[in-house]
Structure to design on (153 residues):
């Protein structure tokens, strides 16, 4: 039964460690370190809201199972927007979206003590001064960062 979960997870996630952006990884043979980062653009919200698209729920269901299986990992959830969001809205929208992800993971069985969330506005773009829609899309993302690993689990 657990093997089925591993199969789903190996298909669904990308692990980002230093220069390995976009590299597929297998959970069964992966080791994790503090500050390892999972960047995803598969968590999509309706325009100017914190309402998730259904496809995003499916992705988050899988990520929640990943966190339940790997119960020693503590995670920071960060959400980023592109530079086109008005400054007076960007903090609120990224904060609400990060909180929505946090709440969704908790509602799917992840212990709240393992999660923190932050909205980063457009303060950490992947491509500064993005011009094309593809470049803006790279800046809109959720990031999951391992903040600590509990050795007693």
């Amino acid at each position: 039964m657990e093997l089925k979960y591993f199969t789903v997870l190996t298909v669904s996630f990308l692990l980002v460690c230093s220069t390995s952006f976009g590299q597929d990884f297998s959970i069964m043979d992966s080791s994790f370190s503090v500050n390892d980062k999972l960047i995803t653009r598969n968590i999509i919200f309706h325009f100017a809201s914190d309402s998730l698209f259904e496809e995003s729920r499916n992705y988050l269901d899988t990520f929640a199972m990943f966190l339940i299986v790997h119960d020693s990992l503590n995670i920071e959830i960060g959400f980023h927007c592109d530079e086109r969001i008005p400054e007076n809205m960007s903090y609120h929208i990224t904060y609400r979206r990060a909180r929505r992800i946090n709440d969704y993971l908790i509602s799917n069985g992840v212990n709240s003590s393992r999660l923190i969330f932050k909205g980063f506005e457009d303060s950490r773009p992947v491509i500064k001064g993005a011009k094309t829609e593809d470049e803006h899309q790279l800046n809109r993302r959720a990031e999951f960062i391992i903040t600590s690993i509990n050795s007693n689990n």
In short: Helices lie at 2-12, 54-69, 87-107, 133-139. Strands lie at 14-15, 23-24, 37-40, 73-80, 115-119, 141-149. The CA atoms of residues 82 and 136 lie 6 Å apart.
